[in-house]
Amino acid sequence: MTETDLLQVLARGEDSRHQFKRDETNADSVTIDAIRRGTTNQRNPTLTEHAVHLLPYRGLGTGIPRALRDWPAIELIDDVAANQFRVVVQRPASATVTPPVTPEVTPEVGRLLLVLKSEMNRAQLMAALGLRDEKHFRQHYQQAAVASGLIEMTVPDKPRSRLQRYRLTPAGHAWLRSRQRTDDAVAHDPDPFPDAYPDADADPPPETLA
What we know:
Elements: H1 3-12, H2 16-20, H3 32-37, H4 45-54, H5 63-70, E1 74-79, E2 84-89, H6 107-115, H7 122-129, H8 134-147, E3 151-153, E4 166-168, H9 170-188
Antiparallel strand pairs: 1-2, 3-4
Helix pairs in contact: 6-8
């Protein structure tokens, strides 16, 4: 298949039902939970092989997990009776959205958020933090961050899974952005009140005669 042929296929929408709709007779149909985790089922390998060279591509199965991470109010609906798959993206309830209350972040949780890149397992996080005490890490870092809603497990149904990893939630990303803005402000103006700390070595002002 040439590039021209592929573009014509995409324009006609050929085999689009295989890409977006579930075939009830297909034993390999992917469940909603599997889709949310990023499981893929290539129905048209030829199309996939060429599309990755023509379209923006960041890895098979990563699109939906990234979308859910950035905007959790996405509903995946597998309507078997209608033989169709729908994705409903919820809008904010009103034009004025009250920003979520940022939970109190302990120094330990703050350190964890700063070293957490993409998805990391417990051993990787402990190494990044320079920690060896697993119990201390679990109580003061991992569990505290999860309880605060700042990080989440990639396999929430199996907390002890060997495949378990952790990633930032939208609240965790928001905290990091807020921290970055604070750091930038301090770097731009490290001493916003220069007159509040007079130089102790400076000569005293001359006395004023009455």
